[in-house]
Request: fold
Amino acid sequence: MIVNQQEYTVDACAYNLRDGGTSVDITSLLRVDLIAKGIFQNVDCLGLLSARSVSPPWQEAVDNARVWKIVLDKDVHWKKMYKVLIKKGFATETTEDDNYSEFYLDLYRNIRDNLKSLENNWITKTAYQRVKKLPYAGFVEHLNFKVKLSDQYIVTRQSPQTIEIFNRWTLQSESIFDIGVDSHRAMMKSIDLTSEYLALGCNRGKIFVFCMKTKELLHKLIDDPALLNCESFAQDVMASRVDCSYLRFSPSGKTLLSCITNNSCQYETLSLRKIMSPREWKITHQQTIHQFNVRRVQMNDSYIYLQGGNNKGIQVRSASSLELINTIAESEAFIKSFQPYDRWIIIAGREQISLWDIELGTCIRQCQMNQTDGDIKTIGLVGEKYIISCHVNCWSSDFFLLGVNVWDLQSLINSQKETLKPTFTFSVSTQSWHEASVDGIRDTSVEKLKVFVDDYQIGCLITWDFDYERREVPVPMLYFMDFTNHFES
Reply:
């Protein structure tokens, strides 16, 4: 093996061959790109910092091979934070002219500081900002509307065939997608998206896939061939009872899960598609489940989680084969929300949060809630630090009290106590969120309130009762409590 002696230098970390009396730097025995691809890309950011400080050749190996980008791109939390910082103007995209080692090293330090700030904001009552309403929060038809949040976007249904995508951090409209190319009977039932694709699930079992950049319709998918050409009246009636109820992209964006519901026969068809290329989407697995009545769907790289109706619990299935792994909390009533984490599922009921082992299918721990808190609407995770539970208490016909409990995640997992108290709690009234109409204050009571939460924000989707005086249904409104306004800029 020929080694370029000018490229590598001997340093203090070299070891001494006593017999020959020579010093050899171990990095000189390997090519820089081999070290990067074979070793450094498998460590975390702290490992890269440590490796970088070993010696000049190690620093050169880390920096010149651009492994910072490889490592940062593998960490979901870091990628999310990077996108948020870009949208909020605290970071910029890298270019070909940038020095990758300096750019990603500075980015690592910036993200590390902002993750600490974000963590602190969640346990500081005043460290959030109430954001103005979104200009349009959805198309109203018998209060049937859809809102989807991603790391960068808010997707709202504006009409039966049209959705509008807003920048989540500026609330500015960015694009509009129209599925009217099919027919007036295409009604959206589910939405999911990645940075590359937008998937819309509709009635009659149809799935439309668009390119996020060009807005081009890439695919019109259908999972049941019998529904593709409905030539007879009976087939058409059957098709009208079939909905694409749920769509989920895997975190990697390489797989799409669809759940087609047949309301006539009470069964659901799960289809797992592998995205080979923008033009090639191939069904790899299909599974039919009977009378489970899927209510919620979540998906990560390892598992698919299906919550059933009528106290049927949560089915855990393989994200690669759809094979049933286990059924969680089958006898538990009133599952309001759930959140997978590692080998566990965190389940929120009406008055408690419980921790379940996925592999064993058993409840490990329960945390009782104060009954005066009201019903839990949703739970979420902030990194690997906290569980956020949002509950709602109706104090009158025209406003709700939104309460937020912050729970220490590791204490829930490791504590041997039968009950666990939240580390922090606060509440905010939605009374001040009533919208003023053109001719004065709208005197309309709240009909429904949907709450969602992720690492950065708590969102409230509020709908109002029918306004009999004006003979109209007020447009639903989206409000946010944003915890990213105290970042280190």
About this structure: The CA atoms of residues 435 and 442 lie 6 Å apart.
